[in-house]
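Listing S7. Sequence submitted for prediction.
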Amino acid sequence: MKLIDGKLIARELKRKLQEEIVANNLNPKLAIIMVGNNAASEIYIKNKVKTCEELGIKVNVYRFDESNYENDIINKIKELNADQSVHGILVQSPLPAKFNEDYIISFIDELKDVDGFGTYNLGCLARDEEKFIAATPYGIIKMLEYENIPIAGKHIVILGRSKIVGRPLLLALLNRNATVTIAHSKTNNLKEITTTADILIVAIGKANYITKDYIKDNAVIIDVGINRIDGKIYGDVDFQSVKDKASYITPVPGGVGPMTITMLLYNVVLSAKNERKKNNG
C-alpha cells in the first residue's frame, strides 16, 4: 500500500503556480464572501488567505452577518464582477439557513466563478468543455495523475452525490474516459457495487464507514471525508481496516484536503491568464 501524500502534491503544484505568476507577471486577486460566523468556515478562510499570501495572490474577505439581506450580498457580487482587478469570487459555504445559496452564487460572473459551482461552469463540464472545475474534484484528479494512476477505462465508484464533490467529479471523470458509478444513501446492495471499483472515492460524511469488506484487492481509495469527533479528525474510510488491502490510499488529514485550496487558487491564476489573453487578443 502506498500513501497518496496530498501535502506533497499540493506543495509542488503551489510552487509551479508561484513560478507561473512571476513568469507571466500576473496579479491574480481573489474575493471571498463570508456570511455569518460559522467556526469551520473561519478556519477554511484563514487557510485560503494564508495560501494566497504565500503565492502572491491578492485576497480580500467581505463579511456579512445574518441581519443582512440577500440583495446586500448580491450587490457586492455585482460590484466585484465589474472590478477588473478581481479574477475570482467565491461565497464561503455553508451560508446561514435564511439565505438561498444557489441563488446568490448564480450572480457570480461565469469568468470569475473559480469555485466552479455556477450553472455555466457545470454546464460546460457536462458538455466536456471544461472551464473551471470545482476544487475538490479537480484536486482528486490531479492526485491520480500525479501518481500515474490510470483513469481511462477504469471502473470508478463515487460514494456521495453532493453538488460540490460527487456530481462534478462524476462529469470530470467521464470526460477522462472512466466508467463511473455513483452511489449514495439510497443505494441498495452497496458492497456489491463498491467491491467492483478499481478506484473508490468516498465522500459521505460518516466516520470510518468504509471497511475492508467494501473494497476489492488492490483498489485505489480516495477518502474525502473530514469528520471531527472529540477533537480528532477521521475520514470516511477506516484506514486501519483497508490499508493492507488497498494499493493506494489518501490519509486523513493530509490527503484530499490540502489539494482543495491549491486547485481553487489554480483556478484563480487560470482566470488571470484568461483575462490577460482576452485583453491582448
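Caption to Listing S7: primary sequence and predicted C-alpha cells for the chain studied. The chain has ten helices and eleven strands. The CA atoms of residues 137 and 169 lie 5 Å apart.
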